[in-house]
Structure formats: C-alpha cells, structure tokens
C-alpha cells in the first residue's frame, strides 16, 4: 500500500466514525477530540468546500468587517482563519469538542472560544451577534433541527444566518420542516440558497452527502 492510499484510507475511516456516532454528543465529542490533530489535513485531502463557500457568502451578505460573528461548530477554525485574513476580527466560536477548540485557539483568529453543544441552550443573551455561520454541523448524526431556534435567538433582529444543511437532513432529518416553521412564525426570511453540491468530493460514497448553503435574515423590529 502506498503512502497516499494509506493516508486516504485513514481519513475515510476518521470521517466515517463521526457519522456513526448516532447523534450522541458525548461520543461525537470524543471522536472529534481524537480527530483534531489530523482534521485540517484530512479536510484538505477530501477537498472540503464549505469554508470557501461560507466566506464568500459572508463577504456578500455581511459587509461590515466589524460585525460580531458566531461560528457555530467552529471545529479547528478553518472558517475563522479565512475570515480573519479578510479583515473580520470580532469572531466567537463554539464547539462540543475541546480538542477542536484548542486547535482553533492556536490560530489567534477568535475573540473567544467556548464549549457548547448545538441543540442545547446557548449561553449567550438574545441578539448577541450580527451574524452566525453554521457549516458542516446540520447533518446526519450531528446537531438536531431545533438547534436552529437557538441560533436565530442569538442573532440580532435583521442579522444574517449562513448555514449548510445536507440534502438528506433537509428532506428526512426534519431540517426542511424546521426552516419552514421558523419562516411561518416570522422568525426569519430566506435571502439566498445555493444549488446542491458535495462538500467533501473526495469522500467515499457513503459520506459524500449532497448539501446546500442557505442565507436567512432574522426578522427586523416592526415600526
């Protein structure tokens, strides 16, 4: 076996483990803790598209470089590093994996990093942020659909949420219904959505989930 094929087999196995965690936050956190050291290398090897797409959408819909931005499911800080290079400085990241947060801290791109679990109440006041990014976490075996409610809550009225949802999670995992329920309740309105794409084009077939990136704006105060 060549070094290249060995590396690819290892990253495929590490990716598979997180999808097999079955939505258990404790088990998922342990898998990500163990993966943290190799995560960036693996994501590059798998051709990960979400960070570049997310940053492009931030540039288009969150023009103010002084905006307070929450990176929900920060991982090792791939998105924050790019946003920092683009001039965004008021970045806060949350993640369930302490190992991932420690890697993100080494970048110096975030004002604060805290351990929180998507799907549980977030320890931020209402309207704490101008924008929120959540990429790669609204998928099979990760955050549940009701996690969107808390993300909407912590973004100020008129603020922006940029998030990816896998096609499977949107259709069968309840995310499509939750997104629509929040729209019908007047919590937010759609701004943009990409066509379906594969965020990890180098992944094995069972992990090469189709996905879309969504942009929503929270409701502004009346009057």
Provide an overview of this structure.
This protein has 223 residues and is an alpha/beta fold. It has one domain (3-218): Rossmann fold. The protein is built from eight helices and seven strands. A seven-stranded mixed β-sheet has the order 3-2-1-4-5-7-6, with helices on both faces. Strand 2, helix 5 and strand 3 (112-115) form a beta-alpha-beta unit.
Total number of β-strand segments? Answer: 7
What is the CATH-assigned architecture?
3-Layer(aba) Sandwich
Q: Rg to the nearest angstrom?
A: 17 Å
CATH topology assignment:
Rossmann fold
Beta-strand fraction estimate: 15-25%
CATH class: Alpha Beta
- SSE topology string: HHHEHEHEEHEHHEE
Mean pLDDT: 90
Helix proportion of residues, in percent?
25-40%
Major β-sheet annotation: 7 strands, mixed
Strand order of the largest sheet: 3-2-1-4-5-7-6
Summarize this, please?
By secondary structure, the protein is α/β, with parallel strands linked by helices.
Top keywords for this entry?
223 residues, alpha/beta, Rossmann fold, seven-stranded mixed beta sheet, 8 helices, globular
Secondary structure layout:
Elements: H1 3-19, H2 25-45, H3 50-61, E1 69-72, H4 78-85, E2 91-95, H5 98-105, E3 112-115, E4 129-138, H6 147-154, E5 155-166, H7 167-171, H8 175-184, E6 188-193, E7 211-218
Parallel strand pairs: 1-2, 1-4, 2-3, 4-5
Antiparallel strand pairs: 5-7, 6-7
Helix pairs in contact: 1-2, 2-5, 3-4
């Amino acid at each position: 076996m060549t070094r290249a094929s060995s590396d690819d087999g290892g990253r495929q196995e590490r990716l598979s483990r997180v999808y097999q965690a079955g939505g258990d936050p404790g088990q998922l956190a342990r898998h990500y803790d163990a993966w943290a050291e190799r995560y960036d290398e693996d994501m590059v090897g798998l051709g990960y598209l979400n960070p570049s797409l997310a940053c492009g959408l931030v540039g288009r819909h969150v023009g103010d470089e002084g905006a307070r931005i929450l990176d929900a499911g920060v991982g090792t800080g791939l998105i924050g590093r790019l946003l920092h290079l683009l001039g965004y400085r008021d970045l806060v990241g949350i993640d369930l994996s302490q190992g991932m947060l420690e890697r993100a801290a080494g970048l110096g791109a975030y004002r604060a990093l805290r351990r929180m679990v998507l799907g549980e109440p977030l320890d931020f006041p209402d309207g704490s942020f101008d924008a929120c990014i959540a990429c790669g976490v609204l998928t099979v075996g990760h955050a549940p659909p009701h996690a969107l409610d808390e993300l909407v809550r912590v973004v100020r009225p008129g603020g922006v949420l940029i998030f990816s949802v896998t096609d499977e999670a949107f259709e069968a995992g309840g995310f499509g219904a939750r997104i629509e329920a929040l729209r019908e309740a007047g919590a937010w309105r759609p701004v943009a959505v990409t066509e379906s794409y594969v965020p990890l084009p180098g992944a094995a077939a069972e992990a090469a989930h189709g996905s879309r990136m969504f942009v929503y704006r929270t409701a502004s105060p009346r009057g």
